[in-house]
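> tool_call: predict_assembly(chains=two)
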Amino acid sequence: MKEMSNKQKKWKGLSLLFSIILIFCIFGAIVFSVSQKISMEMSASAIQNLSESLDLIQSTIEAILRSEAEFQELIAQEIAQSDDPEEYICGSKSNRTVAKISLILSGETEGISSTGERFTEEGLDFSAGGTVIGLPVSRSYLNYMGTWSYTMKCPVERDGRVLGTLYAEYVYDAIDQSLPDGFYNKQASLYIMDAESQRFVLKPKGMGQRSAGHLNLADFYRANNIQDQEIQAEVEDCLRTGQNVLFYHDIREVHALNYMWAVNGGTIFLVGYVPVEAIQQEGRTVNQNIIIVVVSLLTAFFLCIALYYLNWRQQDKLRREREEERRRYNQQLAEALQAAQIASESKTTFLSNMSHDIRTPMNAVLGFTMLLDRDAENPAKVREYTKKITASGQHLLSLINDILDVSKIESGKVALNLEKFALSDVVSSVDAIIQPMAKAKRQEFHVEVTGIHREHLVGDETRINQILINLLSNAVKYTPVGGHIRLRMIGLKQRSSQYEHIRIEVEDDGYGMTPEYLKTIFDPFTRAENSTTNKVQGTGLGMAITKSIVELMGGTIEVTSEVDRGSLFRVDLELRVLEDAADRQFWEQRGVSRILAVGGSAEGRESILALMQDTGVRLDTASNAERALEQIRGGAEFQVVLLDWEGCGLPAARLLRENLPDTIPIVLLAEFDAEGMEKALQLRGTDCLTKPFFVSALRIKLEELWSGKACGPEAEEDGSLHGMRFLAAEDNEINAEILTELLEIEGASCEIAANGQLAVERFRCSEPGEFDAILMDVQMPVMNGHEAARAIRSMDREDAGRVPIIAMTANAFAEDEKAALDAGMDAHVPKPLNMEQLKKVIRQLGERKESL
Amino acid sequence: MKNIRGQRWVSACLAALTVVSLAGCGGHEDPKNLIRQDGEEERVVNLFSPMEKTDPDAENVARTASDLTVAMAEEALNVTMVYRTYTAENEQDKTYDEVCMDRARNNMDDLYLLNPDTILALGAEGKLMDLSGLDSAKNLREIIRTANTVDGKLVAIPQEVVAYGLFVNVELFERYHLALPETPEEFLECCRVFQENGIDTPIGANRWWLETFVFAQAYADLYNGGNTQAEIAALNSGKARYSDYMRSGFEFLQTLIDRGYIDVEKAAAGEAIETEGADFLAGKTPIVMAYWGAANTETAYGKTDFEMKVIGFPSSRGQMPVMPMTGLAVGADAEHREDAARVLDVMVSDEALQVYSETNRVISPSKNVKVDCVPALEPLNDRIEEGIYVLGSNAGMNVEQWGNTCLIVRRLLGGASVEECMAAFDELQDAALNKT
């Protein structure tokens, strides 16, 4: 249809074009024919004009000749009347017209001239038979004055008797004076030619050298390249018969009209040429004016067409823009509608999923609660049920957390909490979380850190942890038993010295994902629907949250995956570097200037080298203990030796220990689950450090070594609450009861205040040290937790500033934690209450208090 | 944006068209008398000069050069130059010189371009005006002044120093391994070789210029021997005979005629260049004689298909340029003599001669004007620059040389013997001696 429309348009355009061309052709033909007609008429008129001019000249010359002849007859009469004709002749004077007069008396062959010389008819040729009013005219000749002349002879008669013959010599220069001083604006040339000799006896003034005057007719032909035999023959014929000739011939590449105009019956001819342009000057002017008018009209017409076209094009452009805009809007609307429909469908699906996912653990909780009630007397069953209730509760909690996180991210209310953090802390905390999960599924979890230059960075540690834990927990989830999971932290080339460019890779050899699912993996409210993933519980929001956080940090995330081969998530982040002058100072103060790293992969050693770069400590490396020993024996003084446990083992540790003073610590770099280290750790001045290597971890380990703390697995000491007394602000009675019970289980006591106000009052009334800590709910009637905390901190009593206040709230976001800290509280423990976490927080607060 | 700019252009064009159209509507006030009244009367100076036959498409450089100076004079003096010309159609016609004499004697023109013999003749008759008072006369080379001074009057001033030489087809000389001849003997040998190789008449000649061979041999020693004035004085007093000087040259010409190196019949009736030029340009004739300017103008030998050189005539002193003195003269009783003198003053001024010489590439008569010549003329120019040449005319000699020698050479061509020709010289000399 569209093609047909285009064809029709094209055809219409062509028709219009052909019509315009046709109109112009007709117009052009009319103009041309008019122009031609005018030109021909003007040409004919000009030829007529030229003929008239030449006729006029001819008449003038003939009149002169007649005058001369008449004059000569008068002279002859006078001579006839004179007593002494010869004396009369001698007394005559030459003038510009008559060069001389001569007389030969009858019966004699010789006479006398007015110049005083003897005169004979010799040299004068009257054979051509030309006459003027009956007087014979001679052929032209050069006279004694060096100019062209002719002679007429006239009988001298007295009383009917011929006394003699009078000869008068006339010069052509006299005729020249009566001719026009150039005609046709001096563009025409005019010669006088003697017909008999075909010599040019009078040449135009101002010709000669400048325009190469002509000698005779042959020279005229040659100089003007008139070689056409027909023309020449016709000219000859006319010369013979005394007729006029006019013909066109180019003279020096100028179109000209040539003429031979008979004078005095053809005894002499006017010869010359006039450029046609000069003849048709008026016609040419008219034609030029016609052309100017036509060109002006055409110009105006084309300009109008151009204006119309430009206007049409502008309108068309506007129309097309409007159409395009409309189409775009429609498309956007369609897309928006589709997105809304998809979102709606996703949310419907999500709600359906959530309904299912929330109901499932809730069902478990309620079901096991019922079972608990029924089997309350059976401690084994009670323990089993409570364990399952706890698991279901935990799952329910994670579901709720994710849902809240997503809704918060979607509403754009997430703010990053940028603070200094150590990469080592991130790695160790993630390692601590993921290792047990992996162990539980008998999976191998490896952490590799390479190319990282700076360990202390600025960023939102919690969110980075969240990213890593999301990715790694997914990897653990979607990798079958016995699989492998790797976390790689790779330092990429820095774009700026101010920023560390880090790539985080999480790789597994698990179930993998289909290409279709990969396309939507980061979309919220979507979850892979297949038999494999259905085995695993999840909200389907983890990846969307992860992607949102990464993008919030200005980073990128991408994933590659193959079904049954595994997946690789790759996150690129740029985190600001924090100069840690204290770190450099530490090494200087401790006199550590040289460390030897022994064993391990070359890549590992390179990584250590990169991390140690800014510490000011020189790092030497040795591929094994023997090489290390060579360096030591070679006199190199090392203050610390790092030994790769997996690469070197116990013999190497022993060897080095034997050859190094006890004051030089040997730190064994070992995997998380390294085995057989006990004997090595018994060696003097020897301790271990979990891979991956971080400078801060080494620093802490050395401090421990130098301060005499032993190595080994850290005692599982979360701190005991035994004997402690808490003041808890909690408006929910059930929660208050649970809290009281839990604390009592831990051997602690708790006094409940129903809101913040009461808590403040109770604290005011308490003895100093009566409460070890205050547990503060946030959302409470009368006075909320933040206000209460501020009120307590502002109290004028000695312990108001240092009594630990711990926020204990269902508001579990980072912003909530920040708000709590800003209100003067010391820590934040989210609900539902995890006693282990509470104990850990209390212990940390205790330690901080001690250090102060 | 582009459209708006286009529309502006179109609008501007339409506006311009409107303005032009409206301007065309403006009327002019018609004068009552439709005939234009001419101003002051036109001043005219008549110049009589020879007319060269012309080709349809060729440019005549010499003519252009002369016209340029005429135009300068017209502009400077507000006069109009009117050309009057004559050229003989054939040998039966009066020669240009004869017509020139007739016209000058009858005061037909104001300015004349004269050959050396007519300068001398008309000068002696007092028909030419004394030009020594002109400003431009002060710039003349001394040799020019001397050659044009008759009875103490400077009667003519040339626009170029005319030098005659042999125009040779170098390629033909090289083809037959011939060096360009220096002496008469070498010249004869060259002719012999050419003839042996099928070039029957190696020399293209006309009835005007064969005398140059005679002058080269006759006066090579007189003008280049260091005793010029004394020798001329001896000739003028009759102590020395012109025939003694001329004999060797005439004998040489006779040899050329006898051996058929010259086509006598053709030469006796032939006009300059017209007769011999075509064969020379076609490469059939290896040698012709002509004047300097012929090497510059396309109507003569300015454009050849072969390498051409212009050398001096053979003489005992090597190649010898022959320099007759043509010149522009003013009729003593001419109708517009004062204007003619002023015109001549402009035409031979340094400024005009510079233009003339640069256009025509000739030697200037002014000592202040120098221009380079075309490569073909270099051999001839080198000799002139060395000061080695003979004069074809000399007003200081009591027997006119250029015209008389030309006529006597024609007698030789007509069959007269060398002795008869020498007798003619003796007659002329005796007549001159008797006159004084």
